[in-house]
Queue: 2 jobs
Job 1
Amino acid sequence: MATTLFPLDLPEREWTEFDAAGFDRPVAGCIHRGTRPPDCGMPLGSVGSGCIDLEADGTWGLSTLFNSLNPRRGPLQVPVLGLCVGLQTWVLTTREVSRRRGILWMDLCRGGRQYQDPLPVREIHYWGHYPVADLEFVSEAPIRVGLRAWSPFLPGDVPASIAPGAVFEVHLRNDSDAAQHGTLACSFPGPSEAEAGTRRLRRRPLTGRLQGVAVSGRKAAYALGVLDEPAVRVGGDLGVEALSWACIAHDLPWAEHQPGTALAVDFDLAPGASRVIRFVLTWYSPQWQGSGNPAGSGNTYTHMYAAHYRSATAVARWLARHHADLLHRVLAWQQEVYAERDLPPWLRDGLVNILHQITETAVWGQARPPIGAWCRPEDGIFALNESPRWCPQMECIPCSFYGNLPLVYLFPELALSTLRAYQGYQYPSGAAPWVFGGVTTGTPPYELALPSPGYASRPQATLDGPCYVEMVDKLWQRTGDDAVLREFYASVKQNTAFTMNLRPGAGAAGIVSMPTDNLANDWFESCELFGIVPHIGGAHLAQLRLAGRMARAMGDEAFATQCEQWFNDGSQVLEQEAWAGTHYLLFHERETGKVSDVVMGYQLDGEWMARFHGLPGVFRSERVDQTLATLKTTSVALSPFGAVTFCKAEAAALTPADWDPGYWGAHGVHPPGTFMLAMTYAYRGQVEFGLELARRTVHEVVQRGWYWDWPVAIDALQGPRTGFDYYQNMVLWSLAAAARGQDLTGPCQAGGLVDRITRAAGAR
């Protein structure tokens, strides 16, 4: 008897370890089910290729395959697969596909044949381990069905990882005592009229080893084929029409000029036999509009994948030739993560699945106008969108500060592309850009050539600098390549001088303060801050630690000395005027006497920045420990799944009379901030506590069905979340080092996790 892809008796939405097909050692995973699906399924797609969600209920979900970026198309809620044995068809979804049950009816248009009303499946067991989704379908059919769907996401291999395509491996198993004849069908809806740029699409047959059809319009194309099957029937997509699914054994809908496609394959299975049928889906829509809408406005950009692959058919034939090797390499790099036995199961699974945010948010534009001549053809501009369905803007700099570590680790050339854009857009003052284009600055959400310093009324300059310098240092430290430092040092130096002089006339206090007139935002925006702000001050001090190390490596002793002087002066002011006895004040403005004792849950972010980069901390050591102890009884104690962003010093939630925390609210938890806090505990020797704090946050995300749709804030009172697909949550990857007391370079050393992942993914 053929086995399933993974065990079906595993708990739902809880982490466990189990054996799975294609792995020679146990994996760590979290199972969802189609009768209680997550808000979004795992996306199929790779790096800057566009993606489509494969839902746990067996349907297609949200799609950006054809550049419906804002708003996204969908969720489509159309079934993917159907199985017919005898007169009965099972549509492989837990959704209802027909109101009828248990009757035979006749279709005179198809020769008077009789068809049983199609049935949904009873359950779907769903294990997503990006870029692979494994599904096991439970029904009354005599054939058991499993699906392994995957895209070629291969750390270290950029050309393979930008291929716009996916493979669907359908496992058929006959556990009955009789031979079974049946039909398997796959249906894909294709592009919308706006996406295709036409109502009448051209269809060309795929022949040879890959049989199916290539469909093309003016702006979009795709190919859908079946690999190594002697006979394949081609028709229009089946949609949600019961009759269309019921007829798959004999007929498929008329397809001429239609956008969608269905393929049907007949099979015979002896008792106890099994086989795999492979469908290949590729897409090709080489240009997007800055508006994010294929029928919209804005500048036109060209995807980098179009420089490597000439058509959807070319991608399909490449996947057909290399599918076995590609899947082997995908599972091999995942096995390296699962083999990290000193990391808890939830973290191993999280490291794998959080990478889906790259495909959800990334675009990679070629070096063509309107992008400036400074952009290199080999680089283009690689950028991530802060939150495509909530706050769509390209490369919001604190989001990349938090979340670009997986790129730095796994695709450093992409991180370099992004940094070169930041440097190219740096302002003469030394300020770093806030975004490359997007909604908070009044420009279209998918622009790459409309940079801005931030909100018009309250720019973000006070923390953009620490973000920029941190990202440069991160890439330098990860690669060990001094060419990175030489390329960016002048801009780092200029930005650091700019950042330390944002409040002229305030003396040393200006180093750790809001800018003049307090006209700026913290990362935790939408709230009023004044004067000395320890959260901002700590980040500034961390920037000085990083910039000073760079200066010494460059032989610039004068600037290294200046950074040290700024650090000492700023630190002295911060420690003297912002310490509240058990924690740091929220703010203290000496000029006006404004003081707030509100506890900020993430006030020690600067400490984490320095420690993660292998440098001494920025706050007094004993005060770090005291603050961490205070946070346990305040911010952490007030949430069951993280640390609330702001609260009272007496361990109580804020009220409207206390201070307005803006959209963070009195109970809001910031998952990336919680992960930074968790790592700060780890770096102070409290590894077990830190990991448990982070686990509680990830567990809450899983329980609420957001594992492939991470928010930026969660309300502790079960209220609505804030945001979708926030890639800053990829800071989770930092825990792989912090849990071992390492800095960011630890996993990159020979034999370290990053080193093993990239080696396994590159094995051929």
Job 2
Amino acid sequence: MPFSLAPFHALTRPLGGLLAALVLMLAAPLHAQSAHPVEIVITGVSGDLREALRGSLTLQRELGHPLLGDLRIKRLHRRATDELRAAMRPFGYYQAEVESALSQDADGTWRAVYRISPGEPVRVARVDLRIEGAGAEDPRLVQWQREFPLAPGDILLHRIYDGARDQLLQVARDRGFLEGELITHEVRVRVAEASADIVLHFRTGPRYRFGKVSFSELPLRDNFLQRFPVFRAGDYYDAEKVFRLHRDLTDSDYFERVEVVPRVNAAEDRRVPVEVSLEMRKRDRYTMGLGYGTDTGPRLTLGMERRFANARGHRFGGDVLISEVRSSGMLSYRIPLNRPSTDFLGFNGGREHEETDTFTRDTDIIGVSLTHLLDSAWFRTVSLNFQEEHFEVGDQVERSSMLYPTLGFQRVAADDRLFPQRGWRVIAQARAASEDLASTTTMVQGRLAAKAIRRMLGGRTIGRFDVAATYVTDFAQLPVSMRFFAGGDQSVRGFAYQELGPENAAGEVTGGRHLLVWSVEHDRYFSERWGAAVFTDLGNAFDSFSDYELHQGVGAGLRWRLPFGLIRLDLASAVSEDGEPWRLHLTLGPDL
């Protein structure tokens, strides 16, 4: 006959209900005891140390617990003295004394007071760091040893020691010493002498190398994808290069998802294979933008880009800009080179129409460019352009042709591109043309523009300057797009867009050979999104560095911080002009 538990379950089912009721009855008085709050006071220490000590108390952690009654409060209070002494040791205090007192106020509130005398802290007497093996001379490990954060005479802080020890293990792993091990890692404390010795010996073992880099199946050729890694199979392993591969793939704009995994556990012959899993973005991207600036009025931008036109990663696209002052249409084709995320060969062409109070121009341009990221983090662009321009400026109506090579350098460094607290941007460019090579005049021109932002005086100070110079044999044949004008939102505020420059006999601005503009601005924010600024701008376009006049504008404005940049509303006065006329300026965009 089979054995059955059914009779036993039938017998115990009423007992289960009785036990549950009994637990609830016992818990009720315990819960009632929790009505009395507990106040914990720690004196004798302050700051982070006091908060760390408070967090070490079991009594503190159980505040608000439904079972924290009077008896448990007293029990945890008796335990608190040992807990506080133990919590003082990681901060270097091994001889701390703790006086405690527990009392209950008339309203039932418990008050636990702990008076701490830290005593003399334990200080580091000797630091013995030793790195053995193949990585003993590795620069990153040598740097770790040189920058070890505890030195003789310092208070022994265990969290600093623990952090430095863990950092050593991480640096060794990142540098490919995957078999590295700590031979000795001790902190020898002599309480009576209030001193300690740190002994940390590490054996690196051999350094691993990169194995094969494999990519997931994609509509891009493998030999194109293999250009992204800055390492090859057989190079020494370096986690920084793995992170860079991930960053470059993400920044390339080809991929929606990027996952780079070094398979350390699958290493053979001390070679670590790297697996890259990718998902492509949509092939085509369409953009549309609306904007407004007092220089240009309302503007509409439309764009289309084919992110990958073929399996070799080529791209092409087009952009259209429509505004009251300037309209343009441009087409471009880009061929990625050895470093696809930063280096490319580009072909472009298009047409621009610009009409200001000073001039009118129609410019057709076609060109080829080569862009390369230098090891110094500067972008270098070498290009050759041909343009034809029909322009009217002053009493001139001309048509010019220019074939000109250009060499340019650019770099941006900032903690935040949209709203930096510290950052800078530099653009340098030189170009030339010759009458003997399909140009209507001979010209050499250079330009340097820079902007810097620093946190100071409770806000941000923003400085910028723009200087340019031109040598030209026949200025009348120089296209208006290559002449210089000043004034406007991004130049000298208080003046209209490009209204400043040399004038003809009729008082009409014709543009200058040279340019000099500088500005200083300071802003402060009184909320997360709203701020105000004051500024002064100074500059002009002119024909001679030995004889020129600078115009000045000063003013103030409001700043509205948005997720895609700043809206700047400025009211500026042209203080260098008779009557000091005022002008309103409105711009939108990032700082750098």
